[in-house]
Write a structure and sequence with these properties.
5 domains; Alpha-Beta Plaits; 8-stranded antiparallel beta sheet; alpha+beta; Rossmann fold; 6-stranded mixed beta sheet
């Protein structure tokens, strides 16, 4: 079987998409006139930001071999895309920038590839740059992989130097897909899927055994959904129809299904509904949660449909309906990180034309209650099935009365920071300020790899930006989930005119409550519109105020039109105005704009 399935893994901006461009060009997969930079980055958003967001497969022919390549993202937030690509391949090209050397994401994706037992081909890229230091970087790679220096390929993907050699090594070193019995049942693993307006759900599959062809009756084993195959084919990188899709190949199957819930990433498509499903993917755990609401209440169905379509294409996105007193009906969505959240928001606005309000992001907390019947105090859907005394809560509005709480547990992560030796101090200080626990330091040549354990909430908002500023942009980080630990966590409520604004409340550690409260109050003072009366903005824990700012009233010159006469006329008018302001204050409601939410979000 002359088939090779492989993917390219690397840190952000180390040249994955450029290398795949050169491979596509050299194998003549796409005609010269159709060629453009970052060909596999199909979304406008990817091209604008210069990052890969979605995995993208392509089939190439080279020296009589069929090469199936999957281009993967490099950001931590899209690591799930990478793990799915790895499961569909037998080998991976580990691409390292010859100027920057090994970075945190390089380590993270490498360990994932090793877990999948893939053959790793180390490649050094960007040799054309004056700052390239192949000697130093190849030392780092040989230490990391315990390989010989001769095994490392030196290339410049931009100039196309050494790319043919990489393809030859792919054929030589990556094993062909394992032979399976082709009699009887056909089975394929879905590693991605999209909803096509005209063709319904299209599954991107790796065929494990047997073959699929047009008109064949098949079914999804997990959802028990039968359907007829409307079309099969491969990616070049456009859809190209084939007669059949056989074992070992990567391609697509058009299902025609219109319901998003009938086809799942990680499910098995099989010609027999009695077949055993293939081992799928670990259910991904969202790290960050936020509420998404339509600005117009009438747009709720449109937002629901858009989110369902995106969740088919992005298995890491979780959706759950929720209601907010200030914003109406919306959805509580789970994301892998802030960049993931940002991308989903932009995709909803661009691809599905949704106007959104997003609440401040939070993580998932476990709250242990000491009440006899917890279902009276929190929604039954939040209670754990294993322990009915524990509720998992991501929305501060769902937090029960502090008197009922025995303990609150928050998620912790193991974090790796790769930085220069001189940046070790600033990184230690930064993590120390976020309640992080230092574990140890390793050195790879002149690089330091720092290991920490940190509460996820502390690094979710602005840690990455702060780290880049503190290290002149040299440091990189990656993290993985460790589990839950008890902590002294409190709900910080924001009061406007003495009334709690639930949409702005947040969960913080008691030691940070005053600082966070002061920052939020200051931000709100800038963005909440002035009224005819002063508005106190307060941050409170229970009944205790920890921070306060006052938004001053409009200065309206009511005596401007008075001319001459006794001063008592002026006083009388001002008294009248004072009474009016008092009355307004009683009826007064403070309107919260999207800017107010964003101010809290960007604290």
């Amino acid at each position: 079987m002359n088939i090779r399935n492989f993917c390219i893994i690397a840190h952000i901006d180390h040249g994955k998409s450029t290398l795949s461009d050169r491979m596509i060009e050299m194998t003549g997969t796409v005609q010269k006139r159709e060629m453009k930079e970052q060909l596999l980055d199909m979304m406008d958003l990817e091209r604008e930001r210069g990052i890969t967001i979605k995995l993208q497969p392509v089939r190439m022919q080279f020296k009589g071999f069929e090469l199936n390549l999957i281009d993967t993202p490099g950001h931590t937030d899209f690591r799930y895309e990478v793990s799915r690509s790895l499961a569909a391949c037998e080998g991976a090209i580990l691409l390292v920038d010859a100027t920057q050397g090994i970075q945190a994401q390089t380590l993270a994706v490498l360990y994932m590839a090793m877990e999948h037992n893939l053959v790793i081909i180390p490649v050094l890229n960007k040799l054309d740059l004056p700052a390239a230091d192949p000697e130093r970087v190849s030392e780092e790679v040989t230490k990391l992989l315990s390989c010989k220096k001769e095994d490392i390929l030196m290339i410049s993907a931009k100039e196309g130097r050494g790319v043919t050699e990489v393809l030859e090594h792919v054929i030589k070193r990556i094993p062909e897909p394992a032979e399976t019995s082709t009699e009887g049942t056909a089975r394929a693993l879905i590693f991605d899927a999209i909803m096509d307006t005209y063709r319904g759900a299209v599954a991107y599959v790796r065929v494990v055994e047997g073959s699929f062809k047009k008109g064949q009756k098949v079914s999804c084993l997990q959802t028990k959904t039968p359907f007829e195959v409307l079309d099969v084919g491969h990616f070049a990188p456009r859809y190209v129809s084939d007669q059949t899709l056989s074992a070992g190949q990567i391609g697509y199957i058009v299902s025609g299904l219109r319901d998003v819930n009938q086809l799942h990433v990680g499910d098995t498509i099989s010609s027999s509904s009695e077949a055993l499903p293939l081992p799928g993917y670990k259910q991904v755990q969202p790290m960050v949660f936020a509420g998404l609401y339509p600005t117009e209440a009438d747009d709720y169905p449109k937002l629901r449909e858009a989110l369902e379509k995106l969740s088919l294409n992005d298995a890491a996105l979780t959706i759950e309906p929720e209601r907010n007193s200030a914003l109406g009906n919306g959805f509580r969505c789970g994301f892998l990180g802030l960049l993931h959240m940002d991308i989903i928001q932009e995709r909803l606005e661009r691809e599905h034309d949704c106007d959104l309000v997003i609440t401040a992001p939070s993580v998932l907390y476990e709250v242990k209650l000491n009440a006899k019947n917890p279902a009276e105090f929190v929604r039954a859907s939040l209670l754990s099935t294993e322990d009915p005394q524990v509720a998992t809560i991501s929305n501060p509005a769902d937090f029960p009365d502090p008197a009922l709480i025995e303990e609150i547990r928050e998620p912790w992560v193991r974090m790796e920071i790769v930085c220069r030796k001189e940046d070790v101090g600033p990184c230690m200080t930064l993590v120390g300020d976020r309640r992080g626990v230092y574990l140890n330091t390793e050195y790879i040549e002149d690089r330091a790899v720092l290991h920490f354990e940190v509460p996820l909430q502390s690094i979710v908002l602005d840690f990455f930006d702060r780290m880049k500023s503190a290290t002149a942009g040299y440091a990189s980080m990656s993290y993985e989930h460790l589990g839950y630990r008890a902590g002294e966590l409190v709900k910080l409520s924001i009061l406007l005119l003495g009334e709690p604004a639930e949409a702005l409340s947040t969960i913080v550690h008691r030691s940070e409550a005053h600082n966070v409260g002061a920052i939020i109050c200051k931000q709100l003072k800038e963005v909440v519109p002035k009224q005819q009366f002063p508005i106190p903005v307060q941050a409170a824990i229970g009944g205790k105020i920890v921070a306060r700012e006052t938004i001053s009233a409009y200065r309206k010159d009511v005596t401007g039109y008075l001319y001459g006469g006794d001063v008592s006329r002026k006083k009388k008018l001002l008294e009248k105005q004072k009474k009016g302001k008092k009355r307004m204050k009683k009826m007064g409601k403070v309107t919260l704009t999207q800017e107010a939410f964003l101010a809290v979000l960007k604290r």
